[in-house]
Structures are given as C-alpha cells and as structure tokens.
Amino acid sequence: MYNFDKLVYTDDFMWEELGVRELPNSLFHYTSVDTLEKIITNKSIRFNRLDKVNDPEEALTANLENANTLVFVSCWDDERNESIHMWNMYGDNFKGVRIELPIDMFKGRDNIRVYEKGGAMFKYAEMIDIDRKDFSLGMRTSSIFGPNKVAYVDNRELLISKAVYEESDFIHVNLYDLGLFKNKYWHIENEWRYKIIGLMEEVNYPNDAFTRDILDLKRYPVNQTEIFVQLDESVFKEMKITVGPKCNEDDYTKLIHLSNLYNCKLEKSIIQIR
Asked: Considering only CA atoms, which of 78, 65, 51, 63 is closest in space to residue 179?
C-alpha cells in the first residue's frame, strides 16, 4: 500500500495501519524515584539521543550514516493498566514510579495537531539548540514531533529506512520516519514518542560541498547526547504518581514530599510482588 522509497509515517498510516483514531489524553512513563525528583525539581523532561537508547537496532538508515544522532526522543506508553514488564525494565526493578501526564505537557502547552507528514507535532514555547562540531552546521528549532505511536514491524525496509534522496541538483532528507519503527519483539511496550529532529525538514538542499558537510555526521558530529525540555508548570497539578510495588519506606517518604509540592495525586501500585 505504501511506497517504502518515500515517507511512510503519515496521518493515513496512523489512522489506517496503526488504528489510531485519536490521540490519547495522557501518557505514562516508568522511571526511578531519583529521576522523578529531577523532573519535578528541574521542571523538565530528558530527550535521549536515539543512538543512546537501549535498542541497538534503533533508527538505522540505509544511506545516511549516524542519522540516529540527529534525533532525540522521550519515550512513553499509553497502557492504563500497570505493566510488570515496564516496571521491571524502566521502573527501577519495581522500586521506582510510574508518572502520568497530559500529552500537552511541555512549556506553552501548544495545541497538538496531526499533519500529513510525520504525524502529530506542536510548537514548543522556547528555541532548542542542536549543536554540531562545526558551529555553522548546528540548528535551532521549536518543533517537537509527537506524541506519535511507534509501529512494530518486521519489514527491513522500514527498520532500516532510506533517509536521503537525490533529485536533479538537490538533495532531500527525510527523518520523519526515523525512531517511529521498531522490531515486533518490542511490541509489549505500547510505546509513544516525542521527537526532536536536528535537521531542517521540507528543505531541498543544494547538491554541493556544504550540504555534504551537513550530512557528514562522522566528521561533524552532534555534540549533545541529551536535551532537556521544560514542562509547563500548570501540568504538575495534573500529574499522577504510582509508587512501585517494591518501593522502600525512605523513597516513599520522599515521594510524599514531592507530591505535596504541587499537590500531585500519589497512589500505590496494585501489583503484589515479593
């Protein structure tokens, strides 16, 4: 149905292939108590560079080496029921927390829209800098893509996508699909992602030496391995914190204090585990 030589992750792909009828109202994130303390204290969420996530097969491309260093992601899930797998993998081995936040959590709370290309997207209230070894190759953006549902596939053309297309005297780069396709064996995570792209989209780059420098991510690498994006202060009163089934008393006391700072809802996990 879809031409794998071009963009795959479109609004039609979301509706028809992924069965997304509407965006969720809120999403969930499993993490440690210490990380939650940093989120609340710094009022920010960390976006991890895609080559640093736990899946070594993430976002590989057929014709742009190190393209995954241009993409930063924040990973969530939409499953309202608690997951033993997620507690074990990401919730500090059942000792951490699960947080729930509205999807428009970031500073400015811009209205999230679903576009034909790349799925959902919104404008962040500040500019985000992506730095390269050569200053002139960096960029600033206020665009954050997502939240978009990850597609779990076994199609190699989707898992290792083509990112660069040459047409006449121009080069077109498509990173919309990058980071939104994972191997089927990760499907249990029901993942949704926010994504920051460190390269201008919808641009026809001239086929010249400067463009080749822009796309040379080995010679001119991206400096950051993470980006911190500010949460809107208004979302803290909407935050819900679920305490992990193995959380100790000291951490539980800390969580009570943290939840009281913004009157967040705090509840214990319903899962019983030794």
From this structure: 51
Contact 37, 97 (CB under 8 A): no
Distance CA 50, CA 99 (A): 22
pLDDT (tens digit per residue) in 15-36: 999 999 999 999 999 999 999 9
Q: What DSSP element (H or E) covers 31?
A: strand 26-31
Reading the block at residue 108, the tokens are 């400015």
What SS3 state is found at 228?
A: strand
pLDDT band of residue 159 (cuts 50, 70, 90) is confident
Give the tokens for residue 191.
């993942």
For residue 69, what is the DSSP state? G
Separation between Cα atoms, residue 129 and residue 111, nearest integer Å: 22
Q: Is 210 helix (H, G, I), strand (E, B) or coil?
A: helix
Q: What are the φ and ψ backbone dihedral angles of 183, each rounded to 5 degrees?
A: -60, 150
Under the phi-then-psi rule, with left for phi > 0, alpha for psi from -120 to 50, and beta for the rest, what region is 93?
left
Q: Which helix (H) or strand (E) holds 127?
A: strand 119-130
Query: For residue range 232-258, what is the model confidence (pLDDT) as tens digits?
Result: 999 999 999 999 999 999 999 999 999
